[in-house]
Design a protein that fits this description.
Oligomer: single chain
Radius of gyration: 33 Å
Largest sheet: 6 strands, antiparallel
Helix content: 10-25%
Number of helices: 10
């Protein structure tokens, strides 16, 4: 502060440093930085010595160090608990509740805050509520002297003995879990615990925040939940109040277990207003986007581009920007000059459009006899709302070929689009009149609950049709799966289809319309598993091990031969597939199963995301269903030794 110059304490080699904590005397900084394997290693930086000392052993992942206000301890989170949990579908183990809270004694002779205590009862203390003896008669009370107002004392320098500090670690006696957000105040510390079910992706239940804020009393050695169902929190100086965020709610409550509740102390933010000049704001947003690329793009030379000149060229178009969408497009064009993938543009204040939910029945219609005829009903999977087909619910008397006569008492005639009769019926109970002939006479009534979207049932039908083609072309030897992306929906689709077809000799992995995600090592790891053994009971057939590498004894690689990856020849022409298999997805997938005897790669090069600045876009699902037909199954059937 005296020199008014920033001092660089450290720099992360593999990730940002984000959890620094000051000591009470402001002479030390505790922080963690990721090592090459991604594990946190804690360090203490001395402002006097201008030196950082590593205080983690390097064996575990230690993060989020915080000083207690009295300067006795350093609390931190660490992954030191290993309780393997076996999967239901895959005989593999994983670890979830690995985190615990630990304390380091900063002085070598400081006792652990969790040292064993005697269980003997303490003698009763003398009562302190006895009144003082009455003043002698005649004595007059002296007027009370005004006490000097307490001035805030400067914190005393704390002592840190670095020698042997790694061995002075004590576990806090609380259950292990998925923990974060550690903070310390006098005599207590706070932390967030996340239940394991909150990490289950792809569900259709409540997606609200589930973190539980705990407070631990060091004197009583008691751990109690303080707030349940929050995103995050912060504390005032003495820890008596907590400000929390729970979805859209921000509130302040007393930090008292049993009394604080989410929803109480809600701050009224509805009246907050900010006056802005949109054009000045857009200019600032544009310049900050340009500056962020200048300062943080991977190549300081901007891959040879004159970034200042390019910025000025696109900035000249700002006077023609009329809304936030225009600005996003302009920034996207700017960043696209770098010809780099995964440079995304999005967000901003967009107008809220009122939408009307149109009910869908998971069916195709055509016109016949002056009414709509149900040409096809898609099967769906009715245990999931995403793939529910309303007309296939048990007990409904309706089939393909029947006619839709009326919707909620309104006659459904072809002079209007069939979906015009289902406006505002998404997710609501609707009464339909159905008949086996194009007439109201003899029609019967059914009650259905239309869905908001029928892409799920149509997608399932498309996959089933492809699977049938492959089955017919290969005599049932080869399996087929479509993987829509390398994110959560793709992971679900991959495992679902893989486990259902482990008894096949080979598999076609169709990656057309891949919409991106992560590098798919979680796919290739399973596709590369080899058969290790066969369990041969007397009275039953041989059981392969591991089950995911379900192969006959004579094979040594997955699927008794090979896996096949096909990618689309249309992605480049359409400009989609920013994360397609051709780049971040395809190369690792192909290399992961690259043995000539294991994988036949089938397809064409695609543009992928090179040279694109990805503004929110999606590939129409109808395109996947109307893509080119292919004879891949026949190719596999005739290939004894696949070539790469």
């Amino acid at each position: 502060m005296e020199d008014k110059k920033p001092v660089q304490v450290d720099q992360g080699d593999y990730a940002d440093i984000y959890d620094a904590s000051w000591s009470p005397d402001s002479r030390w900084i505790a922080y963690s930085k990721a090592d090459r394997r991604g594990a946190g290693q804690m360090l203490l930086y001395s402002l006097e010595q201008k030196k950082a000392t590593k205080i983690s052993s390097g064996f575990y992942s230690d993060t989020n160090p915080v000083f207690d206000p009295e300067g006795k301890y350093l609390f931190f989170l660490s992954q030191r608990y290993f309780f393997p949990s076996i999967g239901q579908l895959d005989q593999r183990f994983n670890y979830y509740t690995t985190d615990g809270v630990f304390a380091i004694t900063l002085k070598a002779d400081e006792a652990s805050p969790f040292k064993p205590e005697s269980d003997e009862e303490k003698p009763a203390e003398e009562k302190k509520d006895q009144k003082p003896a009455a003043a002698k008669s005649g004595e007059q009370k002296k007027p009370e002297e005004k006490k000097d107002e307490k001035k805030e004392e400067s914190p005393k320098p704390i002592q840190i003995d670095l020698d042997g500090i790694q061995s002075r670690i004590a576990p806090v006696p609380i259950p292990s879990g998925i923990l974060n957000g550690l903070a310390a105040r006098k005599g207590k510390f706070f932390y967030l615990a996340q239940p394991q079910e909150a990490r289950a992706f792809g569900g259709e239940g409540d997606s609200g925040p589930r973190n539980v804020l705990h407070v631990y009393d060091l004197e009583k050695r008691e751990d109690k939940p303080l707030l349940e169902g929050i995103d995050g929190y912060d504390l005032n100086k003495d820890g008596s109040k907590v400000i929390y965020k729970a979805g859209p709610v921000i509130g302040i409550v007393e930090a008292v277990p049993g009394k604080a509740k989410v929803g109480e102390g809600k701050l009224n933010l509805d009246e907050l207003q900010v006056k802005v000049d949109p054009r000045e704001e857009w200019k600032q947003i544009y310049r900050e986007a340009w500056r962020i690329e200048r300062d943080f793009y991977w190549d300081p030379e901007m891959t040879g581009h004159d970034w200042k000149k390019i910025g000025a060229r696109y900035e000249a178009l700002l006077p023609w920007v009329v809304d936030r969408s225009d600005l996003s497009y302009l920034i996207g064009e700017l960043i696209a000059e770098l010809s780099t993938s995964h440079t995304y543009v999005g967000g901003g204040d967009q107008p809220q459009r009122q939408r009307i939910g149109v009910g869908m029945l998971g069916a195709d219609f055509d016109v016949d006899g002056g009414f709509y005829r149900i040409a096809k009903i898609y099967p769906g999977e009715n245990w999931s709302e995403r793939t529910r087909s309303p007309l296939t619910e048990p007990g409904l008397k309706v089939k393909a070929g029947d006619y839709l006569i009326a919707v909620n008492g309104r006659e459904a005639r072809p002079n209007q689009d069939v979906y015009a009769y289902f406006q505002n019926l998404s997710g609501k109970i609707a009464s339909l009149k159905i008949n086996s002939k194009p007439s109201a006479d003899g029609a019967w009534e059914i009650s259905v609950k239309p869905t908001a979207n029928e892409d799920g049932v149509r997608y399932l039908e498309w996959i089933a049709a492809n699977r049938k083609k492959v089955e017919e072309a290969t005599g049932g030897r080869i399996a087929y799966m479509h993987v829509p992306d390398t994110s959560i929906p793709g992971i679900i689709a991959f495992d679902k289809q893989l486990n259902a077809q482990l008894d096949k000799d080979g598999m076609i992995v169709d990656e057309r319309c891949n919409s991106g995600g992560q590098i798919p090592d979680f796919y290739t790891e399973k596709l590369k598993r080899q058969l290790l053994a066969l369990v041969a009971p007397r009275d039953t057939k041989d059981v392969p091990w591991p089950p995911v590498a379900s192969l006959p004894a004579r094979a040594a690689t997955l699927f008794r031969g090979f896996s096949t990856v096909r990618k689309s020849d249309q992605l480049s022409a359409r400009g989609h597939g920013a994360d397609s298999l051709a780049s971040a997805t395809f190369s690792p997938f192909a290399m992961g199963v690259s043995s000539p005897r294991r994988a036949l790669l089938f397809g064409y090069r695609t543009m992928a995301a090179s040279g694109l600045s990805k503004i929110t876009a999606s590939i129409p699902t109808t395109w996947c269903r109307s893509g080119p037909t292919w004879s891949l199954a026949a190719t596999i059937r005739s290939s004894k030794k696949p070539s790469n």
